[in-house]
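Fold this sequence, please.
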Amino acid sequence: MRSRTANRSGIVIRRRVTPAGDILVTLLTPQGKLKAVARGGVKGPLSSSLNLFHHVGVQVYQGPHNDLASVRQAVLEGALPTLAQPERYAFAHLMAEFADALFQEGEFSEQAFELFAASLRGIAHQDDPEWVALVLCYKLLGLAGVIPQTARCARCGAPEPEHPDPLGGQLLCARCAALPAYPPAVLDFLRHAVRRSVRQNIDHPVAASERPRLWQALEKFVSAQVGNVQSWRQLVPHHRATGPAI
């Protein structure tokens, strides 16, 4: 493979410092997900630019025998300081890890980048960052083509299921279910969130007391269909302690 240098613009969705002082970063860009290393970056000028949630322009070099690109330059293009606030950070971190799990390296998806960037802006600026995170998680699922089954029972295929699936995060009919039916607002969101626009969803929030059911359904579905997302531990256990269990 021929040596090459490339310029990319993207958002840092994962950052890890190695014992050697290198910074391993994953960026979500309009051209797909990019993994790179800034060697010795923790002690150099790249450190302040390559922070989580920063929108940066990077120049990367990938040699003929290197699987991982090296960051040569990084310029900060945008930052959202309010994401450091405790009530916003957990949701932003979840969105970053969620996007990292959903989208693979080499996938070209400008729409995924724009939707993820919009989610961070919403979490940073909206009065209800939790609702923004819930809506955008479901919209990112739809964009990735990983959509919960809501029109028919996930077990027997019966139409118009209304009950929680405690294992898969989808919907079950009354015959297959062991739990009570979802409240109307929760059921409406689960059935239509992916098809509705972001604005339509944002403008019709589900009550905070009913959101634990949506988080739990999302956690179960993602764990079964996509893989483990560690950030659930910061959100879902809290909701289980304060809201109704499914």
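Confidence is low (pLDDT under 50) at residues 237-246. DSSP finds seven helices and seven strands in the chain.
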